[in-house]
Amino acid sequence: MPFSRISSDLIGSENATRLAALQEDYEFLGRKLARRGLSIDRIKERVKAFTVAIPSWGVGAGGTRFARFPLAGEPRSVWEKLEDCSVVQDLGRNTPCISIHFPWDWTDDLKGLRQAAVQLGLHFGPVNSNTFQDRPGAELSYKYGSLTHTDRHVQEQAIAHNRACIEGGVALGSKALTVWIGDGTNFPGQQDFTASFDRYLESAEKIYAALPGDWTLLIEHKLYEPAFYSTVIQDWGTSYIAATHLGDRAKCLVDLGHHAPTVNIEMIVARLARFGKLGGFHFNDSKYGDDDLDAGSIDPFRLFLIFNELVEADLRGSGVASLEHMIDQSHNATDPIESLLLSAEAIAGAYARALIVDRDTLHGAQAGNDVIMAREQLRTAYETPMGPVLAMARYESGGAIDPVAVFRVSGYREDRARDRPAEGGATSAGIV
Ligand code: AFD
Ligand code: MN
Ligand code: MN
Questions:
Q1: Are 251 and 262 in contact (CB under 8 A)?
Q2: Which protein residues touch ligand 1 with a CB less than 6 Å away?
Q3: Distances (CA, A) of 321 to 44, 52, 307, 314
Q4: In a mutational test of the pocket of ligand 1, which residue from 54, 64, 220 has the highest number of ligand atoms less than 8 Å from its CB?
Q5: Which ligand is nearest to the CA of 56?
Q6: For 296-332, how does the pLDDT look when each residue is reduced to its tens digit (9 = 90+)?
Q7: Which of 156, 322, 158 is nearest to 248 (CA)?
Q8: The pTM of the whole model exceeds 0.85
């Protein structure tokens, strides 16, 4: 059976079996929140307005340095990735945006791609450039770096690729370019730290100069990997220096998995937001490093604390709405569609919980150094089960009360396994 969207009839009939219970739970939670002076309906409306972008690479099976295990029915082209993104959006209703990756998703028909997306109720978010791999047949290699390479010709090739990404993004209606580079070294002495960063700034200036006026350049840092001794854009400090050097339209992108273990990411978020340099997120979760596990699956409290800072930033006038919220995950052991549905829900749930923090009491407790009262405000909000708000927001937006259940009943993956026979190596392999 060729691709067709999950039918609204199926979503409707599945919802009918769950609606009464949802209404009961929603009313109960509404009464609980009302006792705290909160309107559940207002929170639901804020949740409905919140969206997070899907990475095009996230709908295929990911992999590790050791292997990639293909998934029957995974998408083989950017067109098929769109189809899977539309399933996530149709069921979950908070992921209408796709962040694509060039050259992985390159097609000569970008206009057609944009139209196909619109027909599926989708649009394109930030474009990701890729100078961490060599393109087959490329003239010059990125083995020893790209934007920071010692050879000016390699730098120029990498800059030209970023310019091409901007042009492609313009055709798709994107408004941002995300740049993550793997440049760095494996051994002490291999490169000069200062000269490498100077070369980065020089290259980034040229990319920044090519940005259309309404575009943002998002600089993504990561502490290590593939370089294991030093990385040029390794932390938020370096990212902040680069973004400040480049100008107002350069911002920092925080990928949750790109910090050393135990680093206080929510505090980084607060700092960057305060100085107008927070551009967006790559949401995921991790236990050890850049694990790219599903958002909220390891440390949901940290996700909540990040949103707590975003809500605080919102009160100061620089918050959630102006940021590029994206997922960046690698699904090696699950069906990517199911992982993405649950991740988007976990992210929206962290936001919903942050919205119900009693800010006046929190700020009063902070001012009075009432430590217990202050932390209690966060704990109380975090422990409030906001599932009914998320489910009601989805239901009222035309989505599924239980998206994973409907996805399984739909037989979508089984159908795709039949009409998308594996082509071998069709999706990007390895770590993403
Ligand atoms: C890499 C990086 C980073 C980036 C992604 C897509 O770790 O997370 O966002 O690829 O370019 O794996
Ligand atoms: Mn990332
Ligand atoms: Mn990563």
A1: no
A2: 128, 180, 220, 222, 255, 282, 290, 328, 431-432
A3: 16, 11, 12, 8
A4: 220
A5: 1
A6: 999 999 999 999 999 999 999 876 678 999 999 999 9
A7: 322
A8: yes
